[in-house]
Task: inverse folding
């Protein structure tokens, strides 16, 4: 059921929030000119990325791809390399695809209309609303995690935010509260308030410009709202991979485009099967994926990396070609990759790897 509020409450909330944002907003690089391209890149990067880290990636990205035309012209390998470490590589590929579409069809101009934006790869309702309202100051609502938390407390919403009915109501609230002609300040104010004041734990209610309007604050429920949802089940996966060295070069292969981590580079390996030891996994995976017979040597290290629903433990081993293999061609027969190569250690920095493999590379470089 839609939350009901008076015109006076609506006006008070708008004015208090915008005044607070104008006085307390963080100095973020994409806010200095509100260039649509920069707003778009920042919004995609900051999805599930902490602000400080996002700013670092944003600045590095802008040095290489300062505008939509330079991104459209780029090779995908370079785009993925600049994205390396942010995860969710489909977002980088969608940015690349969007840039090419916009250059080909819109003269490189990002639309201001959310209805047009949402047709582009990787742009959903939130991102469309963010670009339209922040870059163009269009009257477009938006709802992200921060906005949902602020609304849940302000209006004492007693459903889980992930509930479809609650999601619908959040968007209705965002639209109903939006002040005409001031969407840029209002929407950013909501998100900034959620990021800095109305935080998930220990909200700073004494510093909140909306505390006098907040039902959760008035009723002592700020620590109980939003209603907590059940977190995702984390599935453990144990994998093993081999760093194969031959004549001063390391073997790497490029994943197929439609695979998980498509087009990223990797060291051959895979999941442990049955009761095999990690070293046995490496030997088996090398033979299955490349046709190369290898001798698995010492363990280099074990790294752990978390993905959305998985905790991956990756065992890394040093490998050499078997004596039998050394007497034959060292060219692999690829069955699980689209390309491969033999490169020196320092050259690995020129390729985009999944996070676990990049951790192995950094460990080797520090301990060589």
Result:
């Amino acid at each position: 059921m839609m939350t009901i509020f008076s015109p006076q409450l609506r006006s008070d909330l708008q004015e208090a929030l915008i005044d607070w944002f104008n006085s307390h907003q963080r100095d973020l690089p994409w806010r200095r000119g509100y260039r649509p391209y920069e707003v778009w890149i920042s919004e995609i990067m900051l999805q599930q990325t902490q602000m400080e880290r996002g700013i670092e990636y944003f600045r590095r990205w802008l040095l290489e791809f300062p505008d939509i035309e330079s991104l459209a012209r780029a090779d995908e390998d370079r785009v993925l390399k600049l994205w390396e470490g942010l995860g969710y590589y489909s977002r980088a590929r969608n940015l690349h695809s969007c840039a090419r579409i916009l250059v080909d069809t819109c003269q490189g101009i990002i639309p201001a209309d959310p209805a047009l934006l949402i047709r582009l790869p990787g742009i959903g309702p939130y991102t469309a609303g963010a670009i339209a309202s922040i870059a163009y100051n269009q009257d477009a609502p938006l709802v992200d995690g921060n906005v949902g938390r602020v609304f849940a407390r302000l209006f004492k919403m007693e459903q889980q935010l992930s509930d479809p009915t609650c999601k619908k109501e959040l968007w209705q609230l965002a639209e109903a509260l939006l002040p005409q002609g001031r969407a840029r300040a209002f929407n950013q104010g909501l998100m900034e308030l959620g990021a800095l004041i109305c935080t998930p734990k220990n909200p700073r209610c004494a510093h909140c410009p909306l505390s006098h309007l907040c039902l959760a604050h008035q009723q002592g429920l700020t620590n109980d709202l939003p209603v907590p949802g059940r977190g995702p089940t984390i599935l453990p996966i144990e994998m093993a991979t081999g760093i194969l060295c031959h004549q001063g070069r390391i073997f790497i292969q490029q994943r197929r485009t439609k695979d998980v981590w498509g087009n990223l580079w990797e060291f051959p390996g895979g999941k442990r099967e049955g009761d095999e030891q990690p070293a046995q996994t490496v030997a088996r995976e090398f033979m299955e994926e490349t046709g190369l017979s290898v001798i698995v040597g010492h363990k280099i290290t074990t790294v752990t990396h978390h993905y959305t629903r998985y905790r991956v433990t990756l065992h890394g081993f040093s490998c050499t070609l078997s004596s039998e293999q050394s007497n034959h061609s060292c060219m692999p027969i690829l069955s699980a990759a689209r390309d491969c190569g033999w490169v020196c250690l320092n050259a690995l920095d020129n390729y985009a790897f999944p996070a676990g493999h990049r951790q192995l590379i950094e460990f080797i470089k520090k301990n060589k």
Observations:
- Residues 235-366 form a domain with the Nucleoside Triphosphate Pyrophosphohydrolase fold (CATH 3.90.79.10).
